Every structure is written in structure tokens, then in C-alpha cells.
Amino acid sequence: MRHAFKEAGVDPSSLNEIARLLECFYSEIPKKTNTLFERIGGTNAFEKTCKKLYEELIMKEDKISEFFKNVDMKALGIKMV
Fold it and tell me: N or C terminus: which one in the chain shows less Cβ crowding within 10 Å?
């Protein structure tokens, strides 16, 4: 960008000032966050999904619920998220 201004005949001291102004404007532009984690609902959705997984599926399944009978489910949920 600096090169384009220089080619347009803008003096070097003005280039520095323009660069500082552009940096200020750039920092004010909201950053888009488009991660998969955020698109599926973020932490809240993941916590609900983990809770449902353990409470409604794992703990009701006779073959595997035995492995979780002495597990602190809240602590496990925190680790999952």
C-alpha cells in the first residue's frame, strides 16, 4: 500500500502518517471468527452435548455404564469441554 501512495506522489512524511491512520482503522474493524467450533454453537453447545452423551446415552447403557459408576460426572464434563 505504501508503494501505491509513493507512486501517486505522496511525500514520505505523509506516508508515515497515513500508515498510522490505517493501522488505527484496521484495529477498529471487528474480526470475523468463523471456526467450526463457533459455527456449531461454541462452549455452550458442546457442554450440552457432553451432558446429554453421558446422562442419556452412556449411563443408560448397561454394557458401559459400569465403567462410569464411580466417576465424578461434573469433573469429567469439564475435562471434555
Answer: N
In the chain, the amino acid numbered 22 is: L
Q: What is the DSSP letter of 40?
A: T
Confidence of residue 35 (pLDDT cuts 50, 70, 90): confident
Quick one: average pLDDT of 1-11?
72
pLDDT of residue 1: 64
6 with 15: CB under 8 angstroms? yes
Residue 67 CA to residue 5 CA, distance in Å, equals 68
Query: Cβ of 51: how many Cβ atoms within 10 Å?
Result: 15
pLDDT of residue 29: 66
Q: What are phi and psi of 49, to 5 degrees?
A: -65, -45
Q: Distance between CA atoms of 48 and 40, rounded to whole angstroms?
A: 12
